[in-house]
Amino acid sequence: MSLEIRWTKLEDWEQIKWIYEAGIATGDATFETQAPPTYETWISKAILECTLVAQDDDVLLGWIKLSPVSDRCVYSGVGEVSIYVHPEAKGKGIGDRLLEELIKRSEQQGFWTLQAGIFLENLPSLNLHKKHGFRELGRRNRIGRMNGVWRDVLLLERRSNIVGVD
Which H helix or E strand runs over 103? Predict the structure, then answer.
């Protein structure tokens, strides 16, 4: 496999959308239950320099996106991570490579804190984030309903060792 991690582009949308839909179908990746939004809506909520895909030849094996948590300038260095891996590529280190690259690029962009909200049942994602220095801040009990069922989410955070340490 010749894996390339690169910035997202419009031509990637159909594969990004398919991977996102596969994540939605699991019921453990997101509160979303509908089809993904348009590319324009999806990318408008992203830090472009930190929105990446993992590609092998012409096939996307995963994507990762960093979104601002707030418009307030005091939170300009805080971003929320979303990561999705193609179902056939799970367990092959794709998420590991994407998150490693996102952390590097986010620090280059001045981010001092990355956060993620993950369902308790999504053990692969929890383990991946913890492997990369995310720590559990707490459990958000009954934070949202999905298909009529209350769901809990673990809130994780990673603080940079480079940015915001002064």
Answer: helix 94-108
Residues 6+ apart with CB under 8 A from 63: 8, 12, 16, 19, 20, 51, 52, 53, 54, 83, 84, 98
DSSP state of 117: E
Please check whether residue 42 lies inside any domain of the structure: yes
* pLDDT tens profile 77-136: 999 999 999 999 999 999 999 999 999 999 999 999 999 999 999 999 999 999 999 999
User: Which residue(s) pair with 154 in the sheet?
Assistant: 118, 139
165 in any annotated domain:
no
Q: Which of 24-38, 39-53, 125-139 has the lowest mean pLDDT?
A: 24-38
Residue 44: domain span: 3-159
Q: What is the mean pLDDT of the chain?
A: 95
- CATH number reported for the structural domain that contains residue 57 in this entry: 3.40.630.30
What value does the CA radius of gyration of the chain take, rounded to a whole number of Å?
15
Model-level pTM? 0.94
